[in-house]
């Protein structure tokens, strides 16, 4: 499946960095998402309890919170993609990732449960995308007050994970 790269008009400027990180994934986004899943789990699974709870600065999320945020954000992006793929024209609201992180209380969760949740969410995303017709990938909807396409959302999912794992590598470990 090669839906092509989204045009800049298919996503809000806020997401340009995520889309840029996913350019290589555009040729085969489903394979890229699957590969990223394996790489993410292999990278995160061996982290120690001290590393999982580490915050690189006051007020920053722990790695546990980052991982839970990845699951939450993918759920939101995947839900948006499903609604738009099904040609639902209802504008979709934004979400406050910081409020979600606080409410989730991820620091109290088991690392294995957080890893399993991310894996399940990504597998669910992949299944939904595999079962979407080709025409759905270029459909446009509105999320957070901006136009967005399914193919842009898929690259945003990939780029979002790449972004946060880059921060974990650079600032946490």
Provide structural commentary.
With 173 residues, the chain is mainly alpha-helical. The protein has helices at 16-21, 29-44, 49-53, 63-85, 97-104, 111-130, 150-172; strands spanning 140-143, 146-149. A two-stranded antiparallel sheet has the order 1-2. The chain has a single domain, classed as Four Helix Bundle (Hemerythrin (Met), subunit A). The mean pLDDT is 97. It starts with 15 loop residues before the first helix and ends with a helix.
- Secondary-structure-based class equals mainly alpha
What does the average pLDDT come to?
97
Spatial gap, N to C terminus: 35 Å
**Which CATH architecture would you pick?**
Up-down Bundle
In terms of DSSP E residues, the strand content is under 5%
Please identify which CATH superfamily we are dealing with.
dinb family like domain
Total domains: 1
Number of strands: 2
Strand order of the largest sheet: 1-2
Provide the low-confidence segments as ranges.
none
Please state the overall shape, judged from the principal axes of the Cα atoms.
globular
| SSE succession | HHHHHHEEH
Q: Helicity range of the residues?
A: 55-70%
Task: Return the CATH topology.
Answer: Four Helix Bundle (Hemerythrin (Met), subunit A)
Helix run count: 7
Name of the level-1 CATH class: Mainly Alpha
The value of Rg in angstroms is 16 Å
Characterize the largest beta sheet: strand count, sense, and whether it forms a barrel.
2 strands, antiparallel
């Amino acid at each position: 499946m090669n839906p092509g790269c989204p045009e800049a008009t298919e996503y809000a400027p806020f997401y340009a960095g995520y889309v840029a990180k996913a350019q290589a994934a555009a040729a085969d986004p489903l394979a890229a998402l699957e590969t990223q899943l394996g790489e993410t789990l292999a990278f995160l699974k061996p982290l120690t309890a001290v590393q999982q709870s580490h915050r690189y600065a006051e007020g920053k999320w722990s790695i546990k919170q980052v991982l839970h945020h990845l699951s939450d954000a993918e759920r939101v992006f995947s839900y948006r993609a499903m609604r738009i793929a099904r040609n639902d024209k209802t504008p979709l609201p934004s979400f406050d990732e910081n409020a979600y992180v606080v409410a989730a209380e991820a620091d109290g969760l088991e690392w294995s449960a957080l890893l399993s949740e991310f894996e399940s969410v990504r597998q669910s995303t992949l299944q939904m995308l595999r079962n979407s017709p080709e025409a759905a990938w270029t459909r446009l909807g509105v999320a957070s007050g901006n136009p967005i396409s399914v193919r842009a959302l898929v690259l945003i999912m990939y780029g979002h994970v790449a972004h946060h794992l880059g921060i974990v590598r650079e600032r946490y470990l």
